[in-house]
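Problem: given the chain below (215 residues), write out its structure.
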Amino acid sequence: MKEKWGILAGNTGFFKMEDVEVPAENVVGRPGEGFKIAMFALDQGRFTVAAGATGLIRACRDASASYAKERKAFGVEIAQHQLVKEMIAQMESDYQAARLLWLRAGWLKNHGQRNTRETSLAKWFATVASERAAGDAVQIHGANGYSDEYPVGRFYRNCKGAVIYEGTREIHKLMQADYVLGYRVDRPTRCELPAHGKEGSQKSEGKSQKSEVKR
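Solution.
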């Protein structure tokens, strides 16, 4: 896809297949489960998007704090202005909250527990917060923020994509409301990802038991 607005480091494209016959041995899951598998995959993609958006908030915070202490207006650093401080404080608050949300989702993943609700919340909060942080970062940089001389313009272009893909902010709003209202309940999936390191520990445990038998 040419002429994307942002995320230019990612080479994005698409392909299309029609009337493709898949041998039975190459089928992933069971016939009719394609949509469920796709939705399950979103839990993994949304997690990485949340983590990336959290990093973008931090980048906006650091760039804004650095510039605000360097840039002077009327003889004082613009960091001394209360409204500039407010924007930087908001970035810090959003960064810490977003970080905890995706870390919680990651903890659940590592323990092999269902995390659709938590991952959705992390993705929604982090991406919307990153858009706010990027907008404020450009504002703090003023005219310089509207140029390519500083990185915040790139942050602003990149943040918008994450608000849209892997489920728009509107989709995640509806999901979170439905969870609270009881309209949405995650049912157990037929297959769950194993807990992190569980398979390896089981193998090592089995080997130790065999060695004890041999002794």
